[in-house]
Write a structure and sequence with these properties.
The protein has 311 residues and is an alpha/beta fold. It has one domain: Ribonuclease Z/Hydroxyacylglutathione hydrolase-like (Metallo-beta-lactamase, Chain A, 4-Layer Sandwich), CATH 3.60.15.10. The strands form 2 sheets. The chain has a 7-stranded mixed β-sheet. A hairpin with a 2-residue loop joins β8 and β9. The longest helix is centred in the C-terminal third of the chain and has 17 residues. It is globular. 44% of the residues are buried. Bound molecules: zinc ion. Zinc ion (ZN) binds next to loops. The site of zinc ion (ZN) has 5 residues, from loops.
Length: 311
């Protein structure tokens, strides 16, 4: 288990936000037709459907350039992105959606519940985007997803499951991929951070307290999903970089781990239970700390080198 709390404060530090190109990571193939084109903080998953690309989540708007660079580096072209699917209404997941739609004509998707929440709480959503260092272009989604909807393109059939908690309309996604003649069930939990579900945060955001129970219910709802490959909508949720760095030629793919889904959900349950017992003061204290460099010490090294040279 991680020493940092992957559901706690995992925001990039102010020094990193001020030099956000330090978040750029080399893109890579995850498994089958699935590729990582996100950065150190936020995941962005590219799927080659054979009839166009699907992008699952986009990074924050300040990281748009590195998203495009990652897509080109892998030999793909952003012009071939047909669908941009957004897991939930936070800027570190929808930040580039409007630009991709405008530039390349991609169709954009989000859950209907979160789309409604965004319209009703525009200022609050925009404020969250500014915390990542810029004004985020407001997304105008083309398709509003319902619980159980299936997104189809080429060889991809992606099932969307409503898992509220982190936001009122988080969508989790499940589909299949193939590698070396074997079929893998892929799953991604659409949003799990605690920042929005503390009692004070719920009051501040004008949400019903029942969202705390929704958080438990959503874990139960997807507990029995069969998942061979668990992705994370932040790389620290599924140890994305560690796995990629553990690859050996000819060896098993470290992303294929049928035990991870339940281990992850159990960790989420345990940590959430601990979190709900904290007093508002303890929650505030928890968010004063930050686990970002514990999770990715390489980023701290990158920053220190940069600082020595330029700052
Ligand atoms: Zn979020």
């Amino acid at each position: 288990m991680a020493t940092f709390n992957r559901f706690g404060n995992m925001s990039p530090t102010p020094e990193i936000n001020a030099n956000n190109f330090l978040l750029a990571e080399k893109p890579f193939k995850i498994i089958g037709n699935i590729y990582y084109v996100g950065n150190t903080h936020a995941s962005s998953i590219l799927i080659d459907s054979g009839e166009g690309l699907i992008l699952l989540d986009t990074p924050s708007w300040p990281e748009y350039a590195y998203l495009l660079d990652s897509i080109y580096t892998l030999g793909f072209n952003p012009r071939d992105i047909k669908y941009v699917v957004v897991s939930h209404s936070h800027a570190d997941h929808y930040g580039c959606a409007q630009a991709l739609k405008y530039m390349y004509g991609c169709k954009t998707f989000i859950g209907r519940v979160d789309a409604g929440y965004m319209q009703a709480h525009k200022e609050q959503i925009e404020e969250m985007g500014r915390s990542r260092g810029s004004v985020t272009p407001w997304p105008h989604f083309d398709v509003l997803l319902e619980d159980g909807d299936v997104i189809e393109l080429g060889n991809v059939k992606m099932r969307c499951v409503l898992t509220p908690g982190h936001t009122v309309g988080v969508m989790s996604h499940f589909w299949e991929t193939e590698e070396d003649g074997k079929t893998y069930k892929v799953g991604i939990y659409g949003g799990a951070g605690f920042v929005t579900v503390g009692t004070e945060a719920i009051k501040r955001n004008g949400l019903p307290m029942s969202i705390q129970q929704d958080f438990w219910d959503s874990i139960d709802k997807v507990w029995d999903e069969e998942v061979d490959v668990m992705l994370g909508n932040h790389p620290f949720h599924n140890d994305t970089f560690d796995k990629n760095e553990r690859r050996v030629p000819g060896g098993p793919n470290p992303f294929a781990d049928p035990t991870e889904w339940k281990r992850y959900l159990q960790e989420l349950r345990d940590r959430y239970g601990e979190f709900l017992k904290l007093t508002p003061e303890e929650v505030a204290e928890m968010y004063r700390g930050n686990g970002f460099f514990d999770y990715r010490p390489q980023l701290l090294e990158r920053y220190e080198e940069y600082k020595a040279k330029y700052l």
